[in-house]
Design brief:
Its cofactor is Zn(2+). Its main location: membrane. It is found in: Cell membrane. It contains nine helices and no strands. With about 230 residues, the chain is mainly α. Helix 4 runs antiparallel to helix 5, helix 5 packs across helix 9 and helix 6 runs antiparallel to helix 7. The relative contact order is 0.11.
Length: about 230
């Protein structure tokens, strides 16, 4: 019994810890960037914080990803959105780009740090924890690259969609911005409905594999090659 509990705790820590750190710092980076660009909404609401409880959505960050992982599905989830008043950002359009890109940028930085620790720091650690740390670092690289790549898909309300709105000429930007409400439905359809339809039609319609899983694997390999 104690062995089963120990195994459960071990399994939870190697998955939950990297995910919680990745999500927490992603959201805190959004809030900090907004504050630097002139909007203190996130700061006033306590969202520029390293406390995971201020960012984690119990269902979207923990329960849903855990269930999908357990049943071999697409890794999908969300955190509590960081409140930003885009009207306060100065300059406004550049501010929108900086705030949106800050979260994925933080995840890329965390993935790089995890690779460096795995290569150069792990051999210096006690042997008793090296295996546990390696699994944590491996999952940290995966989760952070997953968050970075997925969130940069150029569809609102994802970060990539907000970056696209900030870059496009105004007459095109407002058209993309209007997808904000429908964007999440488009994503859910692409991630879950298309693969099922593809199985029925005997076609490869796994958009997640094309847009996210493939790039995540490629970036992970390239990071290791470059930083070794």
């Amino acid at each position: 019994m104690m062995g089963e509990i120990g195994g459960l705790i071990y399994g939870v820590t190697i998955w939950a810890l990297p995910l919680i750190f990745a999500v927490t710092l992603h959201e805190a980076a959004h809030g900090y960037a907004a504050h630097m660009m002139g909007d203190d909404t996130a700061k006033r609401m306590g969202r520029i914080s390293l406390n995971p409880l201020r960012h984690v959505d119990p269902f979207g960050t923990v329960i849903l990803p855990g269930l999908l992982l357990a049943f071999g599905g697409v890794m999908f989830g969300w955190a509590k959105p960081v409140p930003v008043n885009f009207n306060n950002l100065r300059p406004q359009r550049l501010g929108m780009i900086v705030v949106a890109a800050a979260g994925p940028g933080m995840n890329v930085a965390l993935a790089v740090i995890s690779v460096l620790v795995a290569i150069y720091g792990l051999p210096l650690m006690p042997r008793e924890i090296q295996g546990w740390m390696l699994l944590n670092l491996d999952n940290a690289i995966y989760f952070n690259l997953l968050l970075a790549v997925f969130n940069m898909i150029p569809i609102p309300p994802l970060d990539g969609g907000r970056v696209l709105v900030g870059i496009l000429p105004r007459h095109l930007a407002w058209r993309v911005a209007r997808l904000e409400k429908a964007g999440i439905l488009i994503l859910l359809a692409a991630l879950f409905i298309l693969p099922i339809l593809g199985q029925k039609l005997h076609m490869q319609l796994d958009i997640f594999q094309w847009l996210v899983s493939g790039p995540v694997e490629y970036l992970g390999r390239r990071m290791v090659e470059i930083l070794q």
